[in-house]
Every structure is written in structure tokens, then in C-alpha cells.
Records
---
Amino acid sequence: MSIMQVIKARRSIRLYKDNKVPDKDLLELIEAGTWAPSGSNIQPWYFIIVTDDHVLEQVSAFSPGLLGNPPAVIVACCDKQLAFEKGGELGRGELCVMDLCMASQNIMLMAAEKGLGTCPIKSFNGPALKKILKLPDHISPELVLSVGYPKNSPEAPLRKATTDVAYFNVWEGAQ
Amino acid sequence: MSIMQVIKARRSIRLYKDNKVPDKDLLELIEAGTWAPSGSNIQPWYFIIVTDDHVLEQVSAFSPGLLGNPPAVIVACCDKQLAFEKGGELGRGELCVMDLCMASQNIMLMAAEKGLGTCPIKSFNGPALKKILKLPDHISPELVLSVGYPKNSPEAPLRKATTDVAYFNVWEGAQ
């Protein structure tokens, strides 16, 4: 598959089969994530891969956005201490999350090529997840990715046309 | 190329050849970007593709992070009004930037497959760029991507090992 094919094949999946995803594949997704760019190459990320049914149940209970009973969940976290040490307030507040989102997109594309579905979720209770996953104070869960074999093949939601969101040189070609 | 090969081939490029990048290719990068996921599918992004030498010069003057004389720059922007209408304060403050970063990663991977180099930059003067690009008040430049043909092939900066940043179920395997 070309990269455009993979990019277009990725869907936000909200219904999963029961099959477990092999640990090896999940780790390969994380490896793809670690190859994202990061400001000053600080790689301010940690990924908690949840596959244990009991932990999954607890994470689900505090993540209303998590749908379709995924057999695995990746909780993408920022190391806020490292981000502050290397990038000050801007690093801790914004840059580390931007880095993490680029890493997460790598993860979702890698999954798409493997025939795995994913869905990025922001609707979760951060303090509860920190407690469940035993995260240290400086590790902040920023994004939850569901992962599994899709039960359905949802159509792609309508995209805005490229020409409606891209302008050359100045806004709306107002040269 | 497999997706992992593209992900690993992407480098942050800070030295470019003079050759111009065809508009068609730049628009294809944007198309790749528009296929990223976004919260509630709001697609809160706009991309200003700067190829005009005069505008490039102005953008460079206010972007200390922009290095190596790229023949093109993509200024990735959030529509803060749309993000607020659809997602409230959280949408305007954080979610739209997260969506934009996933779109930007698509753009950088698409570029890598085409043999184009990119570099994501946060070190720029936002208000100055808004003025130069004639952006409306509600359109906020969040990330600048340089784009062009790489003059060199920098080695990949060292990555943290997957096993150092990924844990199963709880932090540091503290089951």
C-alpha cells in the first residue's frame, strides 16, 4: 500500500471483534510512534498498553469516549517533567502534546496497514486513569487510542476539499 | 515502501536544494493532511502554502526556527472559531491543535514518500505571520512546516527503545 492508501484506509473504529492483538504487534505500533519528530528530539512520551481485561474494564469505566469493546487500549502520555526541563512552560503546556499527537498518528497509520482499527479519544477522566495505571505525578495521559480488529468497515466521513482548506501565499488568494 | 519504512525515512530537514516543489505535489501533501482524524470530524484546519519568494522571505524573517532556505513552507492553522463552536473551550484550546498535529504528521509522511524533506517548527512570531498571510482573527497559525528537496541526508537522531517507553497495563510493569 502507498502511504496515501494507508492514510485513507485509516478509520476511527468504534466496534471491535473479540480477538486479542498480539503483544508483538502492539509493540510495533509503539515503535512506529517513537519515530515521530519531537522538539529538540526530547521524545517526551510514554505509552501504556492495556490488554489485561480487568485493567481494560477500569479504563473503560472512566473513558466515556471509548466505544466498541476494544481488546487493547494505548494510553499515550506526556512526561511533563522532561518537557518542562527541556522546553519550559511552552514545552510542558503545548509542545509535548503536539509531539505526542504526531507519534499517535504514526501509531494509527501503522495499525491501519496491519488491518487493525484505532480510535483516538480525549473523553476520559485523566486523574482516574493516572490512578488505575499507577502513573507517577509527572506523567500525564493525553490521548487514549483504542486498538483491535474492526468488526465493521465504516465509510469515511466526508472530507473538506483540499482547495477549500489550502491557499497559496495568503488567505483565500487575496494577493 | 511499507509504512514503517516511510515513518523511518522521514527526517527533520534543515538544508534544502533551490528546486521549487510543484504546486500539484504540495496540494497532494495537504490532501494527505485532510485525511487525519479530528474530534467530531470538524476538520478545524487551514493550510497556507507559501511558495512566493517575497512572502517566503517575510515568513522567514519572523520564524527563527525556519532553517535551510526551504522553497516552500506550509503554515498549518487552526480555525479557533469553528473549534469553539463545536468543542467549547477545550476544543478551541487544545483539541484543534491535536487534530492539526495529526494532519501535519500525515503531510510529513506523504512528503517523505515523495522524496521531499520537511521540518515542523514552533519557533515563529504568530501575530507577524497572521499579518503577513492576511489571516482573519479566528485563524491561528500553530505549526510551520518547511518543505523542499533535501540537500543532505541527516542520520536519524537516536530513539529511545520501545521497551523504555512502553509498559503493559501499569507503569513500569508494577503489577
---
Amino acid sequence: MSDFAVTISPRFYETDALGHINNASITAWFEVVRVRYLESLENSDFSAAKDWILASIQVDFVAETFYGNDVVAKITAANVGNSSLTIFCEMFQQGKLTVKGKAVLVYMDSAEKTSTRIPDKLREQIAAL
Amino acid sequence: MSDFAVTISPRFYETDALGHINNASITAWFEVVRVRYLESLENSDFSAAKDWILASIQVDFVAETFYGNDVVAKITAANVGNSSLTIFCEMFQQGKLTVKGKAVLVYMDSAEKTSTRIPDKLREQIAAL
Amino acid sequence: MSDFAVTISPRFYETDALGHINNASITAWFEVVRVRYLESLENSDFSAAKDWILASIQVDFVAETFYGNDVVAKITAANVGNSSLTIFCEMFQQGKLTVKGKAVLVYMDSAEKTSTRIPDKLREQIAAL
Amino acid sequence: MSDFAVTISPRFYETDALGHINNASITAWFEVVRVRYLESLENSDFSAAKDWILASIQVDFVAETFYGNDVVAKITAANVGNSSLTIFCEMFQQGKLTVKGKAVLVYMDSAEKTSTRIPDKLREQIAAL
């Protein structure tokens, strides 16, 4: 896939007393890029945020992130299971890898409130990106 | 009124690179004490968060707040208008005044989605506290 | 002055259970535009965030802000006192005024840790913007 | 080990438009309990937050967390390596398991800014808790 990328400008309130961006803010950024990616798949048949439940996240803090330079957050891979979608993310600041993330989402039948098979059309969109 | 108070333990991620608690976190704490206060008025006839719209806030940062010691956030006064409620808050850390806040809320008729007169029962509860 | 503006894309985690952007997130956005504005004044003689202390903020929530459309946050005026700077901000979503903010900052002598007169060079920059 | 536990009252601004507590807030809570745990080990020879670097976190969102009831966040295990410490956390709301977390921290020599062997005294404290 070609990378899906979002540029994030660190905010001063996202720093902490150690002088860098706090890990909780970085994990929140992972939601930003993840939701944008899901929205990019969206069409009239499905709306992103309500169709997916976040099952788990893993974040590796490879290097510190600092205030003052933009961060590029990329979706580097998206693996489709039956009802699950695993999204891989990498973040870079000044060209340096700072964060590696992995999220597992489950596709929901909003009427039944149960997990359900990811529709073919959506599978194609994920594969195409 | 006797003060209504909530104790808040500053969280590390609420600090910023200046080494103190960031002002955005403190403003968020003001929501915590305000909502708890409104919930304390709540009974079967009204549910707090949905009945009030926040019209404005003012926060004076009297002194820095630091990580490592609890903050006591007090509602010091609540003035009832026709459909509006003005809530005054003070925060203290180690006995020192750090923050003074003022919020204006408007009571809503949730069915009509318009502001409406604060019910008498609720006025009594506010006066009694 | 010509307006200084920052575009903010609301993030999903900045919504709350009432379905709109939470007031604490909006107040945090006010910091984003304020700090960017101060940084735009910055030169080799002074670094923005450490030279200013936030004395107070006032935020009027004129209309709800929603997820899904960008917000334009503008600095509409900046009034210089002796050691204080009052910054006025307005936020718009889809052309509609949603937020009016006002912040009072105090210029600090970082060595002495006391408030000090805003330097002439900085006054000129503020006036010019 | 006997569990180390922190009680967290969900805050209204920690909810999102899906009506539950947002995953970014829950990940931030994990920092709260983790830092408190590290501080409980602290003595005059070491100060918690500055001696540890967060290398990675994993969070499984087992069930939704809601506003309105306290969450109990427990450290259920802590495994010491040479310079690394793996902390396991579980969160419960109304007795129901909602979150399972795992964090890997690395002990730092703050002067040298490199990872270093966790001191014996600290190992004993971790084992004893």
C-alpha cells in the first residue's frame, strides 16, 4: 500500500515536565491518524467511527518526541481478518522514527451490536489504499 | 452556602515543559468540580450534564500549581438568575490559593432545545447547598 | 492588525458524550493559537513560552463546535500594557463564530522571576502584526 | 505480590461522542497508576519519574468504560529484568474487568543518560510490594 499520512504539530500542552511530548498525547495522536484513515475508507454505506471498536493498541516509544517540529504519522500497513482490522502506524519527527504503533479494531454490526464480517467493498478499499 | 469541595490529585501528564500543571488541565479540573456540583443537585427530575449548557468561563491563575500535592477545588458561591447559574470556584494547593474560576451556565429545556427558567425545586437545592 | 490565524482539525477524542467538542478541548485550542502567535513574535532576543505567564483567560462559548469540520482560530487584537499583553481570539467553524476568547499574559524577566516592562522591540512587533 | 491499586473517577471530558470513556483517556489513566506505583518505590536515593523511560505500552480494551462509576486500576505484576521493568495493570468498573495493560520501562542513569542496571535496593522493593 502507499502510505496514508497525517501531519501533526505538537501542542505546548502536550509536553510534560520531562520536557518532551507526553506518551499519553502520542497515543492520542495515534487515534487521530487511525480515525482519519478509517474516514478515508468511508462512503455512503458506512460511517467510520461508529462501525469500529478498538480492541487493543500497542505503542513502542522508539525515540523522544519534542515540541517545536511537526510529526508525520503514517499508516504503513492494514491487515484484514474476518471481522478484525490490524493497523500499523509509524511516526517521524525531522525524518527520525519516533513511534511505532499497532491497533486492532473490530468491525461491528451497529444494529446487532455484535462483531460482523468486514464487507467486501470495504475490504477492497483497504486493499487499494 | 457551605463550600462544596472536590480533591484532585495532579497527574504527571497534566504537567507541561515549564514544570508546572498546564493551564488547560486546570481549566479541565474546573469542569470536574462544576459537574460534580451539578450532579449533587440532581434528582429523579433532572440529570445534570444534559440540562446545562456552558456559556462562558473565566479562570484567574493566581499562582502556579505543581505536581506532587493534592489540589482542593471548592465551589464558593452559586448565583441563580432566571435561566442562568453563575458558579464561583477556588482551588488551593497546600493551603495556598492557586486558581479562581467563574462559570456561567444556562438551563435548557432538553425537549425544546431552548433556555428555560430554572425550576423552583432546583433553585431551593442551589440555595441550600 | 491583520488577523493571525491557525486552522485546527477537531480530533475525535476531543468530543464528549454530548456529541460536541468539549469545552476543555476548546480552551486548550486557545493555548495553541496563543502560543503560535507569541512564537511569531519571537526572535533571537526572546523565546516565547518561557517569557510569558498566563494570568487569566475568559472564554465565551457562543455556539457548539462539532467534530468533522475545521476550526479557524484567529487572534483579532492584542493590547499592550506595561508588562501585560491582552490577546483576543475568535474561532469559526464553517464560517460561524463559535468561540470568543480573551487572555491576559504577563511578561517576565526570567532571571529575576518578576514581571517586567515589555521591551520596545517586542511592542513594535505586536503593533505591526 | 499484593495488588497496588488506584481509584480513578472518570471525568466528563474524558468521554467521547460514542458515549463512553475514550481510549486515549484510559491510556492516560494507565500512566497515573504506573507513576503512583513507581513513586511508592521511591526513597531518598531515587526519584521516580525521571529515572524511568517508557519503552512501550500495550492496552487491551476488554469492555467499555463509562462515566458515572469509579474505576479501580491495579498493578497486578511487575517483572524485573536487567535494566527493564515490565508492569501489568488491570482496570475494573463495578467489579467488571474493562482494561488490561502492560508497560515496559527502562531504568536510566540520569547523569549518563543511558540505561543502567536496576539497583538491588529497588529490586527488593519491587519484589516486596
---
Amino acid sequence: MNRLHVVKIGGNIVDDVDKLNHFLTEFAKIEGSKILIHGGGKIATSLAEKMGIEQTMVNGRRITDAQTLEIVTMVYVGLINKKIVAKLQSLSCNALGLCGADGNLIKSHKRTGANIDYGFVGDVDLVNQRLLNQLLDQEVVPIIAPITHDQKGTLLNTNADTVAQEVACAMASIYDTTLIYSFEKEGVLLDVNDEDSVISKLDLDYYNDLKSAGKIFAGMIPKLDNAFMAIEKGLKSVIIGNADHLDMLITGIKGTTIG
Amino acid sequence: MNRLHVVKIGGNIVDDVDKLNHFLTEFAKIEGSKILIHGGGKIATSLAEKMGIEQTMVNGRRITDAQTLEIVTMVYVGLINKKIVAKLQSLSCNALGLCGADGNLIKSHKRTGANIDYGFVGDVDLVNQRLLNQLLDQEVVPIIAPITHDQKGTLLNTNADTVAQEVACAMASIYDTTLIYSFEKEGVLLDVNDEDSVISKLDLDYYNDLKSAGKIFAGMIPKLDNAFMAIEKGLKSVIIGNADHLDMLITGIKGTTIG
């Protein structure tokens, strides 16, 4: 099987032009097939403020009403995605931007049943493996914004970590797939206040021990649960670490390798 | 050669949800290969107003400064393109949205040499025929927003009529290509105040006669000059007419057929 790197880049990196450009330069150098999924950053929030659209947060999560959906679509798919694509094209990386509606790439459904109505938020049903495979065969590099659709004409805001995991898992049956979560932290830390305490290898037993001992930072738990679920679904490995040294994450010198 | 319809939809239609949905329903029904290019409409202007960004117009043309480029990219590629794609997907039309940076679809250069600096405005150098052909082979329907790139990392605002013409001409060597400009008028009118005075067939001699006699509405001349240039470059025909009855434009019952 050919190798495939599926890389998720966090919102904090997207907000910092220098960090983003450095990251994209390293991303462009990855050999073989690759896919990038990007988050949103703070631009959507500041655009909403400028437009006087109030953002409702419930339990730390943004409610995506109709106006907010328009804003995140404009910012994620219009602004951020195309800036990334144009930059990668300038680095001779044949990037092509997509959201989940394009070519029916990611079909989702509006989240229901929760006590809270999160609005236009989508949970993923299906990733179009065939489309991604065709693009990769043509040496195109898909750059995916986390907006999906319900195939009934409605766009839906979707968690970018989840999109990355679903995309990686969908490709795992035809590619030797590694999923990389790159963000502003060095990896999974044994001591949340010490960036030098990175756990370099984390398997399920060790994870469960650490979790029981209360040693895993709460904000990291959904990411790690996702990562272990992805391994179960056939991924080779999941790597978590700092976007500043993507090259060293891939070679396993830095970050946390899960699996 | 297989048939290809390249359809441009004007900004006024994009602004009207009902008209747009009717148009897209008819577009989805076109048999064989097809490509849609859409304009911008008034949403970009109203967003700029809401954000307090002043728009500079010179000789009736918008100057695309850095902030305006961000706005048109967000609105054209983010909002309008993805609404169209999601709607078409709901109609079982396998639409996939692109701007000129995606897969290096449309390489352009920043307009220079004019007495006026139009800002981030691009004139087209090259359309990636190979990418469009690969997508059409996979029965994907490309939906193109009129934002191009210079391959050096800069996005450029580009006239949608020109994009449509360049795309159609690029495909004419491998497809039996018809270009359709659909907008809010019935076609080329003999009397600008009478929508019933549509000229159904217009060849170059007749056009030159009408132009000499001052009978062609000034605003129509760039569109028609473009159309005749496209015929010269190998297009089968160019059709101009009302987006409300796209089906009848294609069959030649309504609108003006040029060529």
C-alpha cells in the first residue's frame, strides 16, 4: 500500500501568518500522497463582531445559527482555505480546496437529540473515498475546510478534528495512513505545565492508566479518544504535536505517537 | 467530440434565491458535460458596507484593495459558490466548487500598465484544461468562482464573463463547446427598451452593421466582442439570454445565438 499523510492544522496556527507559512512550507515537502484539514481560528469570531452578529456560546461551544453558518462558510471555505491553496500552489504543491459539499466529499446530518440545539452543526455520515482517491491519483493535494452538507442543500459546520479522523479512517483501507494532529502544543504532556514532558509513545493501556490517575489534561481527552478510535478503525498511527516542526512529527523525533 | 455546455450566470440572478434555485434546477437537467461560472452580485458590496470598508469606484469599476479582495474571496468562493454546490448536490448533480487557485485551474497576472491601478485584479493567462477534463471524465460538474491566482501566492479578482469565455475556449479543442451567458435580459435587443425585440441569430457582419448604426446597447458591446472572439477561437456557438429559461436558451428557442 502507498503511504498517505492526513494532517490537521489547528486554528491557532491558521491565525498566525508566519507560523502558517512555515507550516505550509514543511507540508509541501511531505513526500507521497497527503491531505490537509484546517480549522477555523479567530477570524470568524472577529468578523461576526464587526458585523454585529452576537455569538451564543453554550458550555464553551458556539451555537451555529443561520448567520453564523454564513460567516464560518465565508471564513473557512472562502478566506482560509483559498489563502492556504494559493500559498501551497506558490510552493509547487498542487493543492485543491474542498468543503464537504464539493463532489459530495463529506455527507453529514444535522445534530439532533442533544438537550442543546447547536444549530447548523453536522455529524459525519460518510466520506467519499473514491473522490479523494481519484484526486490523489492525479497528484492533487486536497485541502479540506470543515463545512459539510446533508445532501439536501444545507451546509453544516463540523468539528475539524472529527473531519480529519473520518477522512483518515475512510482512506485507511487503500492507503497506509498516518493521521497527524498539529497544533501549538508539543504533544501529549505528562505535566501540562511542562512542554518538555512529552510522552513520545502512547498505547491504549498506558493512556487508560494516565486517565485513571487524572494525568491527562481534560482538553486533550476528546482528541485522544478520537485518536484511539481511529487506530481501531485501521489507521497505522496517529501523531500529535507542534505544527512548528511538522517534519520532526512525521519522522517521530518530536510529538506523541499513538498506536 | 462530446458536447460541453459552459454556462455563466449573472450577479442579479445570484442575488435572487428563487430565480437562482429555478436556474439551478434547469442547469442540473442539462445532459452531458457542463461547467458553471457564477458572478458575484451585491452581497460583497453589502458585506463591505456592514464592515465599514469603503469601496472605491473608478469609471464604474470597483478597485480591489487588500480588504476588498478578502471580502470578494469570502463571498464569491465561500458563500455563493458553496450555496450553489450544496443546492446542486441536493438535485443529484455532482457539483464541485473551484476558484482559479484550486489545482492551478486559472493562472492570471495582476493587471498593470493601465493608467488606473485596479488593485488585486487579474487578467487570465492560462486555464488548466487537463484538470477540467479529468473532472468531467469523472462526471463531476465544476462550479467556478471568478477568483484566480498568480501562482506566487496571491489571489486576484477576475471578471466572470472573461473567466467563462477563457474556460470555454480552453475546452473547445476537446469538446464541442457552447458558451451560454445567462442574465436578466432576454438576449441582444434591437430596441433596448423592448424585450420582445430579441435578435435570434447574430453573425459578425450583422453585428458590425448594427454597431455602426449605433443600435447595440453600449453595455452589451464588451460581452459581444468577447463572444465573437470566442467563436474565432473555436467555440461552436455563444448564446446570450434570460436565466429564467435556460432550457430554451440551450435549444435555441429563446435568446440570441451568436456565431
